[in-house]
């Protein structure tokens, strides 16, 4: 029996006539924990929206495991914090796939919400207004909403931005709990050290796949340089911030023949050359 939670088949995503993800192929195994990394504008959030169905493919597609329940947490910047709602209201929204938007919450539902708030360290916050929460408290609230959704696939878009270190640690612990429960988790992240320490697999994007597989391999110096070259071919004024400044420019890059985890790689240098030609035209 296939363990594929998701399969990407020549997936191209974009806005209007402008592709942001090109020809993505590969498989996300059920129960895997994957970080999605890349420079700003590399297509990370676009991929999340394509998986959840907010964005329709320009070409190719995403094949999902039948009956899979999905929980999607967008970036905080996409949320309207001025909406007049309480913590309990936001967390309870996670129950609507089962109850319907107008369904009344049962005593069990209320207990589920309370347990989720306790799990994220917000016991007693039920009646707090959303606009009174700190960034960390809001993110904990959003994780509580994911908890009550009881999803098979969990998509988190930059969940660690603008929150304190204690909250980051607590949320990482929740992500590892989901991973331990054989849920499939994909997380967009910027902190490469945090990714190296906590995520077994990484997809490195620069509008196309640069590397995908075991994190130590995906984020090695050669692949980081390749990502930087691809990205600069598209956006000359947005350099990649190297974590240690130790990447050297080899005069020849090697095509990937790493086929870990059943992933297809389309990160060869002729793509960067083609991208430069497009950028120059």
TrEMBL record:
GO molecular function: ATP binding; ATP hydrolysis activity
CDD domains: ABC_Metallic_Cations
The keyword Ion transport is assigned to this record: yes
Keywords: ATP-binding, Ion transport, Nucleotide-binding, Transport, Zinc, Zinc transport
Ranges of Basic residues composition bias in the record: 268-281
Comp. bias intervals (Basic and acidic residues): 245-267
Entry-linked InterPro entries: AAA+_ATPase, ABC_transporter-like_ATP-bd, AztA-like, Metal_Ion_Import_ABC, P-loop_NTPase
Location of region: Disordered: 245-281
Pfam families cross-referenced by the UniProt entry: ABC_tran (PF00005)
Similarity comment: Belongs to the ABC transporter superfamily.
Designated name of the protein: ABC transporter
């Amino acid at each position: 029996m296939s363990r594929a939670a998701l399969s990407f088949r020549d997936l191209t995503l974009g806005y209007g006539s402008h592709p942001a993800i090109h020809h993505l192929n590969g498989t996300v195994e059920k129960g895997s924990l994957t970080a999605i990394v890349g420079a700003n504008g590399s297509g990370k959030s676009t991929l999340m929206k394509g998986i959840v169905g907010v964005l329709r493919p320009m070409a190719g597609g995403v094949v999902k495991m039948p009956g899979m329940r999905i929980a999607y947490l967008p970036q905080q910047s996409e949320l309207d914090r001025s909406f007049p709602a309480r913590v309990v209201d936001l967390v309870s929204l996670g129950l609507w796939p089962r109850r319907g938007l107008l369904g009344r919450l049962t005593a069990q539902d209320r207990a589920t919400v309370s347990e989720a708030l306790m799990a994220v360290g917000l016991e007693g916050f039920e009646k707090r207004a959303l606009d009174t929460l700190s960034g960390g408290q809001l993110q904990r609230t959003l994780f509580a909403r994911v908890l009550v959704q009881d999803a098979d696939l969990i998509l988190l878009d930059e969940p660690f931005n603008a929150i304190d270190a204690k909250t980051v640690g607590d949320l990482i612990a929740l992500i590892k709990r989901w991973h331990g429960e054989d849920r499939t988790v994909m997380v967009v992240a910027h902190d490469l050290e945090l990714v190296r320490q906590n995520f077994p697999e990484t997809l490195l994007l620069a509008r196309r796949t640069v590397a995908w597989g075991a994190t130590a391999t995906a984020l090695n110096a050669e692949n980081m340089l390749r990502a930087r070259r691809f990205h600069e071919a598209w956006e000359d004024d947005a350099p990649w911030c190297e974590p240690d400044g130790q990447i050297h420019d080899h005069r020849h890059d090697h095509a990937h023949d790493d086929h870990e985890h059943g992933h297809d790689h389309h990160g060869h240098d002729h793509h960067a050359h083609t991208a430069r030609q497009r950028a120059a035209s």
